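EI: anyone free to look at a 246-residue chain?
SC: sure, send it
EI:
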Amino acid sequence: MTEPTRAEQQTFDLAGEPAMGRGDFLSTPSNALALAAVENPDGLPAGLLVLTGPEGSGKTHLGQVWAARTGARQLESHALPAALPALLAPDAPHALLIDDAERIAETPAEEALFHLVNHLRGKGQILLTARRPVRDWGLVLPDLVSRLTAAAHVALAEPDEALLAAVLVKLFNDRQLRVQPALIDFLLGRMERSLAEAGVLVADLDARALRLGRPVTRALAQEMLAEREAAGLPLDNPPSGGASSN
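SC: here you go
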């Protein structure tokens, strides 16, 4: 029996988990300050850092780099209240990574984070990732606002063209797709300047190639973008949705 071709397989997302190691993080001037902050051998400033940036800017990847170096426990913000007793235990890790920290606003997670900040003060480290600075989270506990506002903040800058090109190549590689430089140049000239947009385009091109049984090429991308333009759709809102990374 003949093995099914890639086009004959069901159109699943075959990307798998993106590579999140230090060697997979693409360093450019736009993210150099943030990278230096999480790799500082002396630890986070005063043990507390707020890392901000838009969706797909690399916050999650940088958090993973830091967690791998420090052995930090990783939590989503909504899980803080339930995890608090274990996090305050004597044998709990003294390094903590909390993703999407701005979502704690006006929830029980605010009080949980306040207790953690106090508990680890002077003896541990907390790295918080968020899309916006603390002042825009809508926190209601004044003492927590004070502590977090006083913490070090590092913002990921808007990606430059060199970073976008490298990220596009990496995203295609994560999906086991080897593409020509002409495709990367074509996308760079037409896409929104965001890493989230890069994720959307790569995911949608891969899905289209699977559906049509064609390779991922400049011609395929040109057809896809022309269809979106004709339909009046922005690049970051494809009809079938898309994946992006933080």
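EI: The beta strands are 48-52, 73-76, 95-99, 125-130, 152-155.
SC: 👍
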